[in-house]
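Hey, quick one: can you model this chain's 3D structure?
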Amino acid sequence: MKKVIVIGGGPAGMIAAGNAAIKGNKVILIEKNEKLGKKLYITGKGRCNLTNASDPEELIKNTIGNPFFLYSAFYTFGSTQTMEFFENLGVKLKVERGNRVFPKSDKSSDIIKALDKFLRKTGVEVKLNTKVDDIIINNRKILGVSVKGEKILSADSVIIATGGLSYPATGSDGDGYKFAKKAGHLISALYPSLVPLRVSQKWCGELQGLSLKNISIEVKIGGKLVYKNFGEMMFTNSGVTGPLILSASRYITNRISEKPQIKIDLKPALSEKELDLRILGDFEKFINKTFKNSLNELLPQKLIPVIIKLSGINSDKRVNEITKVERKNICSLLKNLKLDVTGTNGFSDAVITCGGVCVDEIDPGTMKSKIISGLSFAGEVIDVDCFTGGFNLQAAFSTGYLAGENV
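Sure thing. Here's the predicted structure for all 407 residues.
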């Protein structure tokens, strides 16, 4: 019986620990927090979007950072296996829009209870409120870990599943990168990803809380299109967030200095000509009204004062006095609402970390280090990241499964 230590009690660490125990190893799972799965509690706004009901090829398509590294992981333990795993532990699941999978109860705690049950069933020893200070290596072989307040814990294998830097309040402080560096691994640059963006336009603050559905955005950097999509976004006191913006941030977060620009099309279903006819129709309908009282059927109420201000047209001007040129300018504004990105909200609001332990130095079929014997990695600490929709958690489960299977 070999001794395995798993550092980190998140999704990757729990799957890795239980799987290593199934293989007949004595496994200790070490977690610095007072409970397991602290970050899992807040995923999907507390509902836990645990995977995406897609085939492995679709999972790979939705992986932005080093997708082909996860080929073996997704084909070995993909979304089908993940759903079966939780259902076998008594969790009833449901599939929502975009193939996103949630527990039927809408409670992330049910996923954590299931993982806890898995650990107990497989005989994993869990040490909570315990911080690993260092990993012990000699002659390019792992010997164990040193734990704060305790003597050195010896081990034949160590799996680092400490997460990244996102949501530091849940304990993600970058320890795993420190341990990997000590082992001689390269760490690619770390950036917050799937994160709200800050913009220079002050009027965004006036729209705080306003959600826009069925709009499209384009992101350009240096005049080059880097992202385009259709969906939903929301304004914040300092910028923008929501599904579209979080996905777009992955292409922006490491290029803020290049002054990215977002173009919002508020009416993507209409061409400028069709939109002009629509506005003309509204003006004829409200012919005796002022400009500020003529847009209620076209735009959300909260957005109207901002659009009027940006148009430069007097809000009290009668619509029958608005010129063709002014009307065309309104169309252009609604189809090309521009935002200049100045920064992000940082790791505190980031769903995931972009960057991590270099994948060239990890065996993609086993998650073992190519540098240090007995060392493996799983989850967000590795330089892989995906879009929202359950893909990142699936990557954690998939890599955790392989790491535990192959210690």
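One thing worth noting: The longest helix spans residues 108-122.
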